[in-house]
UniProtKB/TrEMBL annotation:
Organism: Rhododendron griersonianum
Residue intervals of the Ionotropic glutamate receptor C-terminal domain: 465-818
Subunit description: May form heteromers.
GO molecular function: ligand-gated monoatomic ion channel activity
Family: Belongs to the glutamate-gated ion channel (TC 1.A.10.1) family.
Name assigned to this protein: Glutamate receptor
Function summary: Glutamate-gated receptor that probably acts as non-selective cation channel.
One Pfam family of this chain: Lig_chan-Glu_bd
Disulfide topology: 766-822
Length: 963
């Protein structure tokens, strides 16, 4: 039994040792020192001195630096297995298969060419081995290739910086030149979309093969010279760019007026190019990824130069580039990911044995690849190239440096960042917004050693001209006129509209558009139709544009696209001045309108009635027969108009009403006098027609301009077509308006504002006619182009620039004059001179309130005095009302009031008649007052009684009683 147990124990120990030998010993690695060796492949072009050799040294130094700094914390170590791609796609693919099949690498660094990387990435996807490459072509996407890690900035990330440069200088057309490779073609769609976003057209694409001959390059350049665009964006690597720019210099296209912009793939490698090539690129602008300066970077460059000389003694170039820095940081990122993932010796899962398996199919799938990929996905650290952040398989872009090729290399002129746009430095204030202002760039020396910003276009040498149709008309030549040269028969177009178009096309459009004017005429030189017919010719393909006094209206916009208007809008009418009011026999009625006359008359009667109601019971002058009382109502109220009333008022209520009413009358008479005086002394020129509706109702004849859209407008306004007449000149306008509608002319001319203002600017016409309106809004004059024309946005912007500048004022003064300066136009008013009821509503409301307040108080007192009669139960309501009416009509006993007013003879104002002869009259007593004392109230204006002193005294006492 014990032997059996001993045998089992030995067997168990052997089994454990066997398991350890299978799993633990291989993990320890070949050297047996406890470190796990992870095999990583490197595929680079050993003959590429600019990228391949530089990157190879950087990768080796990256791993050495990483493990030197982390030797106490790492149990894994990357072992590099280098392969030469020899600049060939097939060689790169073969190298990848060899590394995966024979070495079983867990990751591959490289290749760096986009065409080679595409095949290697496909292999990595099939075997689930991460491929970390500096290939920048946007066509290689980590989204479509999950095992592709781009250890460089995406080529599309530079597009916004290139667009910002073009936008800053306002260039509206560019020519794109790129190499016919995956690298060259990959960025084109992104450039196209980005330029389209700022309304910049890619006018032409020039694609050059890597094997293109010098003659072919020159031929392509000469073709570009025949175009108008002078802004060229070049996207190619140094191999082709070196030959290309040599030919650009030879073709004299690196002179003043040209703009050359290069992308980051070339800008980043300028230091490796021959000085003769750099000399042919003077004035070129480029963008490249910005690498922040640091002491760590400078120390590395010193060590790298020494190492690079040792490894490449036959190479004369010892400059670091951004691709080498990315290779260094990529290797560092891979070493960090390997350490974090905790992977061991990886094996490939072999496929089930099948016959005729290819080498690629026989490799299998990496067991550790997915874990390593996950560790690489979002790794982040501060590397030599700046902040190295792999986000979703891409190196996150930060900022770009804008440089100018001057002298032996490039010079920094600014920066671009995604948040702030263009700036001179990378120090931003919190208030800074995104900017594409060219002033935020440093001084740039352009091709031809010019410091003047090129406009980006020149007159083309072979492009067909824009066919511009212009109207032919017999009048209104100030707007557009077409003549032919007697010798050459060339079309000569002049006028306000033509000058505006020339100014827009020749000076404000950001590129050149050659054009020629073609008149819209019949073989005998007459107009070929209306303006609608002219505009429709564009949709028929007979014209490329129409220029003239063409109004933007909705029915025309169905066939063409209009630019923004360059004139004011609106339709108005011209009418004669009506005759002078001073010749009117009834002019005295005009100061007040009919409503005010009627209201004033009603208030006169109303006020007279109110005074009678308050006075007829207590005042003898308001009593008598009914005819006398009615007459007194009218007489008293209307006499207040000229303050001629002599009747004395006894009731305080009537005095209150008269005080308010006299104030109203004072304001009315003053206003009436002022208005009538103005009518009689100042000549008022008023239009004969003030409303277009009056023309429709009166069925007067109306004129309009020949060929104008106004005819259709008048039809829509329900004008009788038989009452419409067309005219072609200002002279015809004058004759028709002078004759009038009843004498073969018209009552009004309806036209657009520019024509009317020009018509009235003539002193001969402005003294006779005036403008009424505008009563209809239009968009103004515009230039017409075919539907969807790319010229419309640019010309519209140019029109805005012209209209906002003094140049438009200069053109208007040159053709349309300064405008009307007639005094008659200044005196013309469409509104009536008559005073209206609205101006005096407040006064009448005050008078009504005062009168009714007095009436309410009067009725309250009357009812109080006759309350016994009103509340008596001995009679019916009808009898009560009759009794109250009789009481109201009876004269009130006013003896107590009169007795209070009597004064002793010696103390009052009564004096013996003899006093008038014996004593001198007091200076304070006027003749009128003295006469008033001795007038008899019943006799009116009576003679003075001197024979009977007693009668005189009695008369005086009676007057005192009345007061």
């Amino acid at each position: 039994m014990q032997e059996h147990r001993r045998y089992c124990s030995q067997l168990l120990v052997l089994l454990v040792l066997f398991i350890i030998s299978l799993y633990v010993v291989p993990i320890l690695g070949k050297n047996g020192n406890g470190l796990i060796e992870v095999d990583v492949g490197v595929i680079l072009d050993a003959d590429d001195q600019m990228v391949g050799k530089v990157s190879q040294t950087c990768i080796s130094m990256a791993l050495e630096d990483f493990y030197a700094l982390n030797q106490n914390h790492n149990t894994t170590r990357i072992v590099l297995h280098k392969r030469d791609s020899k600049g060939d796609v097939v060689e790169a693919a073969s190298a990848a298969i060899d590394l995966l099949k024979n070495v079983q690498v867990q990751a591959i660094l490289g290749p760096q060419r986009s065409s080679q990387a595409e095949f290697v990435i496909d292999i990595g996807n099939k075997t689930q081995v991460p491929i970390i490459s500096q290939a920048t072509s946007p066509s290689l996407s980590p989204t479509d290739n999950p095992y592709f890690i781009r250890g460089a900035q995406n080529g599309s990330s530079q597009v916004e910086s290139l667009t910002a440069v073009v936008q800053a200088f306002g260039w509206r057309e560019v020519v794109l030149i790129y190499e016919d490779t995956d690298y060259g073609r990959g960025v084109v769609p992104f450039l196209t979309d980005s330029f389209q976003g700022i309304s910049t057209q890619i006018k032409h694409r020039s694609v050059l093969s890597l094997s293109a001959s010098d003659d072919h390059i020159l031929e392509e350049l000469y073709k570009l010279m025949t175009m108008q665009t002078r802004v060229f964006v070049v996207h190619m690597l140094p191999f082709l760019a070196s030959r290309f720019f040599t030919k650009v210099k030879q073709a004299e296209m690196m002179n003043k007026g040209y703009v050359w912009i290069i992308t980051d793939g070339l800008t980043s490698l300028l230091d490796y190019m021959d000085p003769t090539i750099i000399n042919s690129m003077q004035g070129v602008i480029g963008v490249k990824p910005y690498v922040p300066k640091s002491s760590k970077l400078e120390n590395f460059k010193v060590r790298w130069r020494k190492r690079f000389r040792q490894e490449n003694p036959n190479v004369d170039i010892f400059e670091m580039n951004v691709f080498g820095l990315w290779a260094y940081d990529s290797a560092t990122a891979l070493a960090m990911a390997v350490g974090r993932s905790g992977i061991g010796v990886s094996k490939f899962k072999k496929p089930v044995a099948k016959e005729n398996l290819t080498d690629l199919a026989a490799i299998g799938i990496s067991e550790m690849g997915p874990r390593l990929l996950q560790s690489l996905q979002n790794i982040e650290f501060n590397g030599l190239s700046g902040k190295f952040h792999l986000l979703n398989g891409h190196l996150r872009p930060l900022s770009f440096e804008i440089v100018n090729v001057i002298g032996k290399g490039d010079r920094e002129v600014g920066f671009w960042t995604q948040k702030y746009g263009i700036s001179k430095n990378l120090s931003f204030s919190s208030s800074k917004n995104y900017s594409t202002n060219k002033d935020d760039l440093g001084a740039i020396i352009w091709p031809g050693e010019s410091n003047v910003v090129p406009k980006g276009w020149e007159l083309p040498t072979g492009e067909p001209k824009l066919r511009v149709g212009v109207p032919v008309k017999g009048g209104f030549m100030e707007f557009v006129s077409v003549e032919r040269d007697s010798q050459t028969n060339a079309v000569i177009a002049t006028g306000f509209c033509i000058d505006v178009f020339k100014e827009v096309m020749d000076h404000y459009l950001p590129y050149a558009v050659p054009y020629e004017f073609l008149p819209f005429e019949t073989p005998d030189g007459e107009s070929a139709g209306s303006y609608d017919d002219l505009v429709y010719q564009i949709s028929l393909g007979n014209y490329d544009a129409v220029v003239g006094d063409v109004t933007i209206v909705s029915n025309r916009s169905r066939f063409v696209d209009f630019t923004l208007p360059y004139t004011e809008s609106g339709v108005a009418m011209v009418v004669p001045f009506e005759d002078d009011d001073r010749k009117n026999a009834w002019i005295f009625m005009k100061p007040l309108n009919m409503d005010l006359w009627l209201t004033t008359g009603v208030f006169f009667v109303f006020t007279g009635f109110m005074v009678w109601a308050f006075e007829h019971r207590v005042n003898e002058e308001f009593r008598g027969p009914p005819s006398k009382q009615v007459g007194m109502i009218f007489w008293f109220s209307f006499s207040t108009l000229v303050f001629a009333h002599k009747e004395k008022l006894i009731s305080n209520l009537s005095r209150f009403v008269i005080i308010v009413w006299v104030f109203v009358v004072l304001v009315l008479t003053s206003s009436y006098t002022a208005s009538l005086t103005s009518m009689l002394t100042v000549q008022k020129l008023k239009p004969s027609v003030t409303n277009i509706s009056d023309l429709i109702l009166s069925k007067e004849y109306v004129g309009y301009q020949q060929g104008s859209f106004v005819k259709g407008l008048l039809k829509n306004k329900t004008f009788d077509t038989s009452k419409l007449k067309d005219y072609g000149t200002f002279e015809q306008y004058d004759e028709a308006l002078s004759n009038g509608s009843k004498n073969g002319g018209v009552a009004a001319i309806i036209d657009e504002l520019p024509y009317i203002r020009l018509f009235l600017s003539n002193p001969k016409y402005c003294a006779k006619y005036t403008m009424v309106g505008p009563f209809y809004k239009t968009a103004g004059f515009g230039f017409a182009f075919p539907k969807g024309s790319s010229l419309v946005p640019d010309i519209s912007r140019a029109v805005l620039n012209v209209t906002e500048q003094n140049v438009m004022t200069r053109i208007e003064k040159g053709w349309l004059g300064e405008g009307a300066t007639c005094a008659e136009q200044d005196g013309a008013r469409v509104t009536s001179d008559s005073l209206t009821l609205d101006s005096f509503k407040g006064l009448f409301i005050v008078a009504v309130v005062a009168s009714f307040s007095a009436l309410i108080l009067f009725l309250s007192i009357f009812l109080y005095e006759n309350w016994d009669t009103f509340t008596s139960n001995d009679s019916s309501i009808r009898e009560k009302l009759i009794a109250m009416a009789k009481t109201f009509d009876e004269e009130k006993d006013n003896s107590s009031y009169a007795s209070k007013r009597k004064l002793p003879i010696g103390e009052g104002m009564a004096v013996p008649a003899t006093a008038t002869t014996d004593c001198p009259q007091s200076p304070a007593t006027s003749d009128s007052q003295l006469a008033e004392w001795i007038f008899s109230p019943d006799e009116g204006l009576s003679t003075i009684e001197t024979s009977t002193p007693i009668h005189e005294t009695i008369e005086i006492v009676e007057i005192n009683e009345e007061r």
